[in-house]
Specification:
- By secondary structure, this protein is of the alpha+beta class.
- It has two domains: about 70 residues, no CATH class; about 70 residues, P-loop containing nucleotide triphosphate hydrolases (Rossmann fold).
- Helices cover about 40% and strands about 25% of the residues.
């Protein structure tokens, strides 16, 4: 599972962090940098913490779905604290995951929705307008 999660972290961080390690002696996760240095949770900033958490979730989902029926994934504004570049890379990862399973991503941030549409112009997009959903049809 951590191997899969590490792939996602590597993609989302554009290679700055290459692996997620579990330190069994301290019972804690570490983020391994490209140069081999490992950062413990106390050294993570909020962005890395959220990216690592998402990567572990994605790794677990991949691991779970290998032997079980794929379940839908529901995410609620998990990219709200990401900068545009991390949002773009994470949207691309989610679009890849969506090829194998259903993903519902809820957001009130137009820029996050735009990143998903850029990652896949055919993505289904629904906007809640008042009390009704409006579908945005792919071009």
């Amino acid at each position: 599972m951590l191997s899969e999660a590490s792939k996602y972290l590597r993609t989302v961080t554009d290679g700055r962090y290459v692996a997620i390690r579990y330190d069994s002696q301290n019972e804690a996760f570490q983020a391994q940098e490209e140069d081999g240095a490992a950062k413990s949770a106390e050294q993570w900033n909020r962005g890395l913490r959220e990216q690592l958490y998402l990567a572990v979730r994605f790794g677990y989902i991949q691991h779970y779905c290998q032997n079980n029926e794929p379940l839908p994934i529901v995410l609620d504004d998990t990219l709200a604290n990401c900068d545009p570049e991390h949002t773009r890379r994470t949207a691309e990862v989610l679009v890849q995951l969506a090829r194998e399973r259903q993903i519902l991503y809820l957001t009130c941030h137009r820029q996050a929705a735009a990143q998903f549409r850029r990652a896949d112009p055919q993505i289904a997009h629904y906007r809640l307008d008042g009390q009704a959903f409006q579908a945005t049809r792919p071009a």
